[in-house]
Write a structure and sequence with these properties.
alpha/beta; Elongation Factor Tu (Ef-tu), domain 3; Rossmann fold; Ubiquitin-like (UB roll); 3 domains; six-stranded antiparallel beta sheet; 7 helices; 18 strands
Length: about 325
């Protein structure tokens, strides 16, 4: 994939765990354009390999002089956020150009934007774009507490935005049933945040009667709780390889560690680039891009999904 050499031009601390970075072309060249919902990929050295990590663009314009991203530190993650938080102004890195797997639907006459935590980054870009275009929207932003809310001032400055705080207890936070409301013709819902938050929003929207083609999401992965997973074996029939996947590693990372070259992009289970077929075993699906029908026919995302059985056989 083509990369651009970029330089960190500015860094801001938004919360104790979230820092904002501004990236410019190292040679001063114009930046490729983009639309709200787009992300860029940072090439990050992890375990001796260059791996891609996707971060949403917060900018609202497709003619930006710099790309704005915000990265939340995940000390127990795979290492990408730790590396980004160590960057300093003037450092250079390779970046893949903007790609948009979470675009606004031009046919939508109004939009309901819902963000949880660091999921505000693409949602704020959407709100800024809609406001500039004069298109109606409502934005609801949930966080544990005010001190953990990145872009709080920018969100509060929007006329159609509401901030919610749950103090760590989801039952005290955003009232999803009334916030989402009944479906309206040509009104679309966009949600971004941790997997559990997205699942709750989408399930409530469906219970409220929203059609699936009016629901759009992008996932920001959260680190699984310690001890939540167990190891298993995965047999890759096309490769002729059987691997042990420990509880702390994804199937995708196990393949990379074994010297294989799998096709992937987001590593979050929301783009579908890595989808393969389960030939045997019981899958533990953790993606958000596959429908129930896709899963029933055996589709599977090795970047995030795991096995409920001791052994899983994949068409890879």
């Amino acid at each position: 994939m083509t990369t651009m050499r970029m330089r960190v031009s500015r860094i801001d601390t938004l919360t104790p765990a979230i820092r904002r970075l501004w990236l410019v072309c190292a040679n001063g060249a114009p930046l490729p354009g983009f639309e709200a919902g787009a992300h860029i990929g940072l090439r990050i050295p992890i375990d001796g390999r260059s791996q891609r990590r996707a971060y949403s663009l917060v900018n609202a314009t497709d003619h930006a002089e710099a790309y704005e991203i915000a990265v939340q530190l995940e000390p127990g993650g795979t290492g990408g956020s730790i590396w980004v938080h160590r960057l300093q102004v003037g450092d250079e890195l390779d970046v893949t150009p903007p790609q948009n797997d979470f675009p606004l639907d031009d046919a939508a006459r109004s939009c309901l934007l819902i963000a949880g935590g660091i999921g505000i980054t693409p949602i704020l870009s959407m709100a800024r774009s809609l406001e500039r275009a004069g298109r109606p929207y409502d934005l609801h932003y949930a966080a544990r507490e005010p001190g953990a809310m990145a872009y709080a001032d920018e969100v509060r400055a929007l006329a159609r935005a509401t901030c919610w705080f749950d103090g760590g207890n989801p039952s005290n936070g955003m009232p999803l049933e009334t916030t989402i409301g009944a479906p309206q013709k040509d009104r679309h819902l966009y949600v971004c945040g941790p997997a559990g938050f997205i699942h709750a929003v989408l399930e409530q929207a469906r219970q409220n009667g929203w059609p699936n083609d009016h629901l759009h999401c992008e996932l920001f992965s959260a680190t699984p709780a310690a001890g939540a997973d167990s190891g298993f074996e995965v047999e890759l029939t096309a490769s002729g390889v059987t691997l042990h996947v420990p509880e702390t590693q994804s199937i995708l990372d196990a393949m990379i560690g074994a010297g294989l070259d799998p096709v992937f992009d987001c590593r979050r289970g929301d783009c579908g680039v890595c989808v393969t077929r389960v030939l045997s075993g019981e899958a533990d699906h953790r993606d958000i891009c596959l429908s129930d029908e896709d899963r029933d026919r055996g589709d599977f995302c090795p970047c995030v999904s795991r096995a409920k059985s001791a052994r899983l056989v994949l068409d890879l």
